[in-house]
Amino acid sequence: MEQVTPPKVKLLTSGNHLMAKQMQAEAGDLLPKHLANMESILFIQEGACILTINDEDKLLKQGDAFVIPPEIKHQIRAKTHFKGIHFMPNDIKFQFF
User: Fold this and answer.
1) Mind listing the pLDDT tens digit for each residue in 3-25?
2) DSSP 6
3) What residue spans define the domains of the chain?
4) What fold, for 8-83?
5) Which bin fits 90, alpha (ψ -120 to 50), beta or left (φ > 0)?
6) Distance between CA atoms of residues 73 and 97, nearest Å
7) Which residues contact 32 (CB under 8 A, 6 or more apart)?
8) Exposure string over 50-59, b if 16+ CB within 10 A, otherwise e
9) Could you tell me the pTM of the whole model?
């Protein structure tokens, strides 16, 4: 089984209903597989990663954004050192596998 590495996460801001968190990982890091109960948006600020969702790999590069639907398992592998911003509701709940 491949080593899973948690991303470094930092809260950037939060309001009454939404928050933005910065996440970053090093090249080759495999982040935990998970799903959330609500839709969110991942914006790639620097570098590149591969988002595996619905058994499909999507290359996301600097400047790309992706809407992650609720209740769909997904996983990220850092292709290079990357930083992303994850925009989500404050009351989102995650389930990790």
Assistant:
1) 999 999 999 999 999 999 999 99
2) P
3) 8-83
4) Jelly Rolls (2.60.120)
5) alpha
6) 9
7) 4, 6, 75, 96, 97
8) ebebeeeeee
9) 0.94
